[in-house]
Amino acid sequence: MEKITSFQIDHLRLKPGAYVSRADRFNNSAITTFDLRFKEPNKEPVLDQPALHTIEHLCATFLRSHKEWSPKVVYFGPMGCRTGFYLILEGEYKSSDIIPLLLEMYNWVKDFDGPIPGATAIECGNWREQNIDMAKWECNRYLNLLKNAKKENLEYPA
């Protein structure tokens, strides 16, 4: 069986950042999958599960409500390893193309005030496991990285 592309990335050299994980075509549509890596793999503690869950709820809500980007959003969700998130968009993009969207989104999360969208027993299968304060902290940390992103934060290591 062929090793999938994401398992071919050297996770010992991977830094936090925003990477194009893959680019695919489905019929006439281009699809770009982004690796939004919050944590340095195998070196930093992973994202706290309640914070990860809150970030997922907030970012998915933000993206699905965004005037420009919502029609292009296919998926936003956590990585199984809990070091970041996947964002899948319809269209062909480079990492630098979505930095303004990511800055807007993580600023929104950092400044969010109010009930967490979808965090009730009717709406979510694990609604109690949320941590807004830690979610804001993690998003602010990632936001600061994105504001000063270098090539090593936007392109996978060779």
Would you give an account of this structure?
With 158 residues, the protein is α+β, with helices and mostly antiparallel strands. The protein has 3 helices and 4 strands. The protein has helices at 49-65, 95-110, 132-147, and strands at 17-26, 29-37, 73-78, 84-90. The chain has a 4-stranded antiparallel sheet with strand order 1-2-4-3. The two termini are 23 Å apart.
Q: Radius of gyration in whole Å, from Cα?
A: 15 Å
Q: What order do the strands of the largest sheet run in, or round the barrel if closed?
A: 1-2-4-3
pLDDT < 50 stretches: none
Total DSSP E strands: 4
**Average of pLDDT:** 96
Question: Biggest sheet, in brief?
Answer: 4 strands, antiparallel
Structural class: alpha+beta
**What percentage of the residues does DSSP assign to strands (E)?**
15-25%
* Approximate helicity band: 25-40%
First-last Cα distance:
23 Å
Number of helices in the DSSP assignment: 3
| Shape call | globular
SSE sequence, one letter per element: EEHEEHH
